[in-house]
Specification:
The complex is a heterodimer of chains A (337) and B (504). Chain A is mainly α and 337 residues long. Chain A has a single domain, classed as ABC transporter involved in vitamin B12 uptake, BtuC (Orthogonal Bundle), CATH 1.10.3470. Chain A is 73% helix and 1% strand. In chain A, strands 1-2 form a two-stranded antiparallel ribbon. In chain A, α3 packs parallel to α8, α4 packs antiparallel against α5 and α4 packs across α11. The radius of gyration of chain A is 20 Å and the shape is globular. The two termini of chain A are 24 Å apart. Chain B starts with 6 loop residues before the first strand and ends with a helix. In chain B, α4 packs across α5, α8 packs across α18 and α14 packs across α15. Chain B has a 6-stranded mixed sheet, sandwiched between helices. Chain B has a 6-stranded mixed sheet with strand order 18-19-20-15-21-22, sandwiched between helices. In chain B, β11 and β12 form a beta hairpin. Chain B is of the alpha/beta class. Classes of the chains: A mainly alpha (337), B alpha/beta (504). At the A-B interface, α1, α9 and α10 of A face α11 and α12 of B.
């Protein structure tokens, strides 16, 4: 009897990027509304730029925006794995910084270019594995675990570098990663590749199906023989790996590694990208392609605010406001569905 | 008892949307009596009591207190009318002190501040009345379950209520704690309160109550003085008599070697030394009343709760029994639980995705890429075989009716042909037609050679499929009956002396 009393709205995950539940009509409404809001913000911004700062539309600046977006974007793709699995990873920018400086130090001390990327990727993956182990096997709360990792990794990065930046490593490292193809730097291509691979993984493979199942309902997934702990753990490993991939690209672009590689607002940008890309913070729902688009939108917003002469701190206020708006839209639409 | 009754509820009805929860609820209470309210799950006890407690409003019917008709608007109003409700789930705040919990709704005030000294003194006085010596300044989280229960009671009697409702107060108490609670109830009765006592334990009911009201399917079916009835009569009325039900198949006696043997399985506070043998091709009906440990036994067998003693042996492909960890057994079991929305299907997934989930290894290539065509084909085949009513297998599971969701849960196990199925109330909340289909499906599984453990609180349903019965009472298997056992024999098995003492 009681089971029948529970209406279909028990789980909030209605509507969503891909094929989700609910009456079909609603799905269109949800996405249209959010997309319209996003388009309005972006178009309004572009129009303002056109009037106020036409240099914005120079090809070089547009490529620059894509390069910036690739940093935020690869991180957002990593985070979307964790979010879809029902968790959160706050430590990604700190992981980026720590794996970056460790790799750079190794490169400098051994004067060998290829060791850098290897060490960075290993370090990032290891930090992700720690997060994953703590969350999935030790059943610790993801928010607290990754907050602690963020503090530890961020602190360690400053500590081992003594706040100095490291740039006396072999130049072949930068040469390779600044390689351009069709005028676009390698990082933009990698960003696109990551987005496509991630979308394929999540939408077409067993692993992706498992992540969504765990994100929606870990109890039912476990009874359906989904290896819940392993899947959860892997989402954090992927996030750590992609954070260190970002470290390689960022160091190559900046020409030096330091503990301040990850700017203070990077975490905010990654989460904004996911939220704007409609990756649900409640798990199960989301498409990394949309998170990638969200990253481009966030970068556009930051870049144009910067060119308009809006102060860094004012732009933080605006970006925070946009996140709240999108989360609100999401909740509001879900409730009516 | 010719005096005016303290409370008279007559012809009370309530529906939630299309679902009728209560059609004809009647209850008469006198001052100074303990009145047991009994009924199976979904009989309407909770609805009736929630109406009396003002938690929900009735649709029709009359509530008369001390001769005056009343309309109860909200729980605060009911409390003001002298009705106290001691809820089943503990509602205390663990991080507050005992006294703070007791006065949560209205703290004694001095100006804008809480009058702490007065609050503590009053709390101590109330606690003394329920016969417990807890320090009013102790944090509730440091108390045992039994003491928390007493704090709840002390809180409930703060306003000297005329009617006190106890909703399954003993379900989480240990033996001595239960004794203490009965003592408190005796005292309250002696002081003239009318007490409603809801419990599934027949021994408790026959020990402390004066009269018994039984409900079934939303109706009050009868009221007896304790001295004029028997446990058998009460159980009979609770569960209804079984009309000649058609068995889906005649009892089948399996001569095969056992597939699973559980030896002295003990787990948690309830499950105590259970022995169980299951053979291929047979349906074992696990029969017991609510709270007898049915679900706990399944959880123990499946490794969802740890075993504190005992072992489980499972036959391998060669037929030899080997000790198996419960978690490993779960990997080989088709498990269907009553809570299909939480544990059965993933609501936002389509039918095909739900059926595919445990079978993805067979539906993907070496790189783990899912063959969506294969997945849909499998789902389409199973869905039509089991008669899942849906527009297509792309329909999301959340939009299906309960019966169809349950069929999807069955479907997802079929491709891997498990040799053991555990069906825990698989028909709960389904309509008659869907129930019949699920029962037929159950028999089909057994005919294909699986061992099936079937759990149901509806005896008539169990009697249509079970080849053999294991009767569970208070966490112990007290009887084993053959598939030909009569309704009366089964009824007697849960209400006789031996069962009631089960695990005392």
């Amino acid at each position: 009897m009681t089971a029948e009393l529970t209406p279909l709205t028990k789980q909030p995950e209605t509507g969503g990027a891909t094929d989700r539940i609910g009456r079909p009509g609603f799905r269109i409404d949800v996405n249209t509304l959010v997309l319209a809001a996003l388009c309005a913000v972006v178009l309004g911004l572009l129009f303002t730029m056109y009037v106020e700062a036409p240099t914005f539309f120079r090809v070089n600046n547009l490529i620059n925006i894509l390069v910036q977006a690739s940093i935020v974007g690869i991180l957002a793709i990593g985070l979307s794995f964790v979010l879809i699995g029902g968790g959160i990873d706050l430590s990604m920018p700190a992981t980026l910084a720590l794996s970056g400086v460790i790799g750079a130090i190794c490169m400098r001390d051994m004067q060998s270019a290829w060791i850098g990327p290897v060490v960075m990727l290993t370090a990032g993956t290891a930090i992700g594995a720690f997060n994953g182990y703590a969350v999935a096997y030790l059943r610790m709360a993801p928010f607290v675990v990754t907050l602690a990792t963020m503090t530890v990794a961020g602190g360690a990065a400053v500590w081992i570098t003594g706040s100095q930046s490291i740039s006396d490593y072999p130049l072949e490292f930068e040469d390779f990663f600044l390689f351009r193809f069709l005028r676009l730097p390698l990082s933009v291509w990698l960003f696109a590749a990551c987005a496509l691979i991630a979308a394929f993984l999540l939408n077409r493979t067993m692993f992706g199906r498992y992540i969504r199942a765990v994100g929606f309902n870990p109890a039912a997934a476990s009874i359906s023989r989904v290896p819940v702990s392993r899947v959860l753990c892997l989402t954090y490993v992927i996030a750590g790996f992609l954070a260190s991939l970002t470290a390689i690209l960022l160091i190559a672009r900046l020409g030096s590694a330091s503990a301040s590689l990850a700017s203070d607002s990077l975490l905010l940008d990654i989460i904004s990208a996911c939220v704007i890309g409609r990756v649900s913070i409640y798990g199960g729902v989301g498409n990394p392609l949309q998170a990638a688009l969200g990253a481009v939108a966030v970068t556009l917003i930051s870049n144009s605010l910067n060119q308009l002469g809006v102060s860094y701190f004012a732009s933080l206020v605006i970006k925070g406001g946009i996140i709240v708006l999108f989360v609100y839209l999401d909740r509001f639409v879900r409730r009516s569905a | 008892m010719n005096a005016l009754p303290r409370l008279q509820m007559s012809s009370v009805a309530k529906r939630f949307g299309p679902v009728v929860a209560l059609t004809d609820g009647n209850l008469t209470l006198h001052a100074g009596e303990v009145h047991a309210l009994m009924g199976a799950n979904g009989a309407g006890k909770s609805t009736l009591m929630n109406i009396l407690g003002g938690v929900i409003s009735k649709d029709t019917g009359k509530v008369v207190i001390d001769g005056a008709p009343v309309e109860l608007n909200g729980s605060a109003h009911a409390a003001a009318m002298g009705i106290a409700f001691v809820h089943q789930e503990l509602t205390t705040m663990p991080t507050l002190t005992v006294a703070e919990n007791m006065f949560l709704e209205d703290y004694p005030k001095r100006g804008p501040f809480i009058a702490r000294r007065r609050m503590i003194a009053e709390a101590a006085a109330l606690l003394a009345r329920v016969g417990c010596q807890i320090d009013p300044l102790a944090l509730v989280e440091t108390l045992s379950t039994g003491d928390r229960q007493l704090v709840e009671i002390a809180r409930a009697i703060r306003k000297a209520p005329k009617i006190i409702i106890f909703d399954e107060p003993t379900s989480s108490l240990s033996g001595p704690e239960r004794e203490k609670l009965f003592g408190v109830i005796e005292t309250l009765r002696a002081n003239g309160a009318a007490i409603v006592f809801i419990s599934h334990f027949l021994d408790e009911v026959f020990r402390i109550s004066d009269r018994i009201t039984v409900m079934r399917n939303g109706c009050t079916v009868g009221m007896w003085a304790k001295t004029e009835t028997s446990t058998a009569e009460v159980v009979e009325n609770m569960l209804g008599s079984v009309a000649a039900t058609d068995r889906v198949r005649e009892p089948f006696v399996s001569g095969s070697a056992p597939f699973l043997v559980a030896r002295e399985v003990t787990s948690g506070p309830l499950i105590d030394g259970v022995n169980l043998t299951m053979r291929p091709g047979e349906i074992v009906g696990l029969w017991g009343l609510l709270g007898s440990g049915r679900t706990e036994l399944v959880r123990a067998l499946m490794g969802l709760d740890p075993l504190s003693a005992g072992r489980i042996e499972v036959a391998g492909d060669d037929g030899v029994l080997r000790e198996t960890a419960p978690a490993a057994l779960r990997q080989r079991t088709g498990l269907v639980t009553e809570d299909r929305r939480k544990e059965g299907v993933i609501l936002p997934f389509s039918i095909a995705q739900n059926i595919g989930l445990p079978n993805l290894a067979q539906l993907s290539n070496a790189f783990g890429i899912i063959d969506a065509r294969k997945e849909r084909a499998l789902a389409t085949r199973l869905a039509s075989e089991l008669g899942v009513k849906a527009v297509s297998v792309d329909q999301t599971a959340g939009t299906l009716s309960g019966g169809n969701q349950q069929k999807v849960v069955f479907s997802k196990w079929l491709p891997m042909k498990p040799r053991l199925f555990i069906l825990d109330e698989p028909t709960r909340g389904l309509d008659t037609g869907a129930k019949g289909e699920i029962l037929k499906l159950t028999v089909r599984l057994a005919e294909e050679g699986a061992s099936v453990l079937f759990i149901s609180s509806e005896l008539e349903e169990l009697m249509r499929v079970a080849d053999r019965y294991m009767v569970i009472n208070r966490g112990r298997i007290t009887h084993e009956l053959p598939g030909s056992a009569s309704h009366d024999a089964l009824m007697a098995s849960v209400s006789d002396e031996r069962s009631m003492q089960g695990a005392a």
